[in-house]
Structures are given as C-alpha cells and as structure tokens.
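Sample entry (134 residues):
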Amino acid sequence: MGRRATGMTLIELMVVMAIVAILTAIAYPSYRSHVAKTHRKAAAACLSQYANFMERYYTTNLSYEGAKPDLACRTESDLNRFYTFPEPEIGENSRSYTVSAIPTDAQKDTDPSHCGELSLDQRGGREPKDDACW
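Predicted structure, serialized as tokens:
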C-alpha cells in the first residue's frame, strides 16, 4: 500500500500568511491609537493632581507663588516619555495659574486626535476645549 503525504502545501501556507498580514495591518494602527489615548488620559489625570496640589498650596500660603509640585504621576507608567510637565505659569498677583502637559514626539506621532498641549487653570478651564481630548 502506498502512503499519502500529509501536511500543508506552500499555497496554503501563503494564504495563511496573507490573512495574518491583513489582520495585523488592520489591528496594529488601532492598537497604537488606543495606547496614545491612554497616555493622553493619564496626562489629563496628572494635570488634575497638579491642580489639586496647587489649590492645597494656595490654601496654606494664600498665593500660588513658589509652588513646586513633585508629583509621582509624572514618572508613573513612564509618562515622562510621552508628555513633559513644565513648571506652572503663575499669573498676576500670584492668584492664578496654568499647568500644562506638552506631548513629546513619541505621543504626537501616534495620537490620531492631535489634541496637542493640554492645560488646566485655577478656574478649571481646560484647553483644548474638545471633550475628546480629556
């Protein structure tokens, strides 16, 4: 009796590889945009912590002048690779502030919404005003 060879042919292997390549081409960009959105939401949460620190500082000192927060949220989850958090901008009479999160190139390249810099002031005003960015 003759034995019949079993296994995959080259054509079948090529079809499977093509299907995997198509699925990867569809899934990878979606994955990257979700990761960028997660980093953006983490930066927004860090700005909220930053604002809370500023308000506590004001309650104690009756001025925002001299506030230098050292928040752990900046270094958690390696957020510093995706956003920079400059010192707060203190307004006239030291009674106003603006805290910001500026995206680095790594975040700008992968974020499909292109929200750009996120900022929050003492009144709770957010920039950009688009809710999708926050």
